[in-house]
Amino acid sequence: MSGLKMPEANRDVLSRRAEIVSALRAIVPGEGVIDARTEMRAYETDALTAYRQMPLVVVLPETVEQVSRVLRYCFDNGIKVVPRGAGTSLSGGALPLEDGVLLSMMKFNRVLDIDYSNRAVVTQPGVTNLGITRAVEHEGFYYAPDPSSQIACSIGGNIAENSGGVHSLKYGLTTNNVLGLEMVLITGEVIRLGGKHLDAEGYDMLALMTGSEGLLAVVTEVTVRILQKPETARAVLVGFATSESAGRCVAEIIGAGIIPAGMEMMDRPAIHAAEDFVHAGYPLDAEALLIVELDGPEAEVDHLLGEVAAIARRNGCTSSRTSTSEAERATFWAGRKAAFPAVGRISPDYLCMDGTIPRKALPEVLSRMQDLSKKHGLRVANVFHAGDGNLHPLILYDANKLGELDAAEAFGADILRLCVHVGGVLTGEHGVGVEKRDLMGEMFNEIDLAHQMRVKCAFDDRQLLNPGKVFPELHRCAELGRMHVHAGALPFPDIPRF
Q: Domain FAD-binding PCMH-type, which positions (predicted)?
């Protein structure tokens, strides 16, 4: 797995594999346990395909009781567990462990309750993001967070990574749209947080769980907020001669107090790849493209479209086209949502980064990213949530060419360091996983990391749930504070930390 270090495999657990598989089959009978290597191959990686590792065994429970019993068995026997949803994680969050059970939640795939009066849906974690909207759209409702992978990604995975999407600028990330959870601790205990009510007393444990990347518990049920579809929604494509001028336009739109339902940006390589793939009518002469959507009452939308057009002209836009029908608006977004797979047409491999920056830093960061592209000798295509500063640079490389994966990882690390340097953060919605794990010291000092680890220890003091993710070093809970991180660097960096 390249130079990535993961926790050392427990040889005792490996030697007991047959016994463990047999015990798990007793808990999850039938086809709920997969132990043949050829059949487990589908689970060796997630969407961060640069890293692969075969699990000890794959378990697909169907009931909360089975999840509880599996986790309790693993707890009693010191066996690591990696929870997995649809496997669309772009940060390696579902990367298996050689000595760990991979717990797939994709048989939890039913919508349990639709409550229009409370504008809430209760669903199992294996239901897809888009599946929730499909279940309620006939009544004029929808689920707002819409990652580009929404046709495939599961709501449980959205909880784990606090996923966003093109409409998160106005309607928020997953954390802003989740009302309640049922989850199982590593000890097998089943607990509930929140519900259909708007808010809960006490500590906000619901927010703590959202974005916890499978390190604290396994989600078995989710209650989400649904919204009524707006009266009017229109999108405008605005082309620019430079990415910097497009970035300035983004900052000015937000600075004017306009909050679009979505505001996305693509640079020239991404524009051409998406247009060849979807034929959405994107301006191929533009160096940068903004897709700005306004929604609400028709009069308000018409007024705001005029305001956005004026701001775009002040920032030197070269073209502008507004949707005239719902079908045309959907086509505009189809190109953006297909941009990631479309880039596969121009490069055999790519790394999708996920840093977030202050909007005012967009022009500077886009310019410096081109300098980094020259430094590392690799192309980059930019597709990102411009309105909230969530960048998704796609670093193009060929894994079959010696050294290109290493160069791509170094390029990505430099981009994330740049994001932190200008006042941003390492991740906006993809999570830390293994991809950004060793960069956590760039953003957090030793005290920060120790306190985050204490939260992990409160839920999982044996560190059996998804170890090797998020934290740059994994030490026993009793040893907290003994590891010193200075200026983002660990002492003796050549020593494996696991």
A: 51-229
Quick: pLDDT tens for 357-413: 998 888 889 889 999 999 999 999 998 888 888 999 999 999 999 999 999 999 999
* Mean pLDDT, range 66-92, rounded to an integer: 97
Q: Identify the CA nearest to 382 among candidates 48, 374, 390.
A: 390
CATH code, domain with 144: 3.30.465.10
Statement to judge: residues 274 and 196 lie in one domain: no
Q: How far apart, in whole angstroms, are the C-alpha atoms of residue 426 and residue 488?
A: 13
Asked whether residue 412 is assigned to any structural domain, the reply reads no
Q: Long-range contact list for 18-22, CB < 8 A, 24+ apart?
A: 20/56, 20/57, 20/77, 20/79, 20/101, 21/57
Place of tokens 């106005």: 170
Of 341, 376, 400, the domain-final residue: 341
State percent of the chain over pLDDT 90: 82
What's the burial of 389, exposed, middle or buried (CB within 10 Å: 0-12/13-18/19+)? buried
Amino acid at 379: R
Q: How confident is the model at residue 140 (pLDDT cuts 50, 70, 90)?
A: very high
Domain span at residue 159 reads: 111-228
Instruction: Identify whether the C-beta of residue 136 lies closer than 8 Å to the C-beta of residue 354.
Output: no
Q: Tell me the C-alpha distance between 42 and 52, whole Å.
A: 10
Specify the residue for token string 């980094």. Answer: 372
What does the alpha-carbon distance between residue 223 and residue 111 come to, in Å, rounded to a whole number?
10
Residue type, 1: M
Give the CATH number for residue 72.
Answer: 3.30.43.10
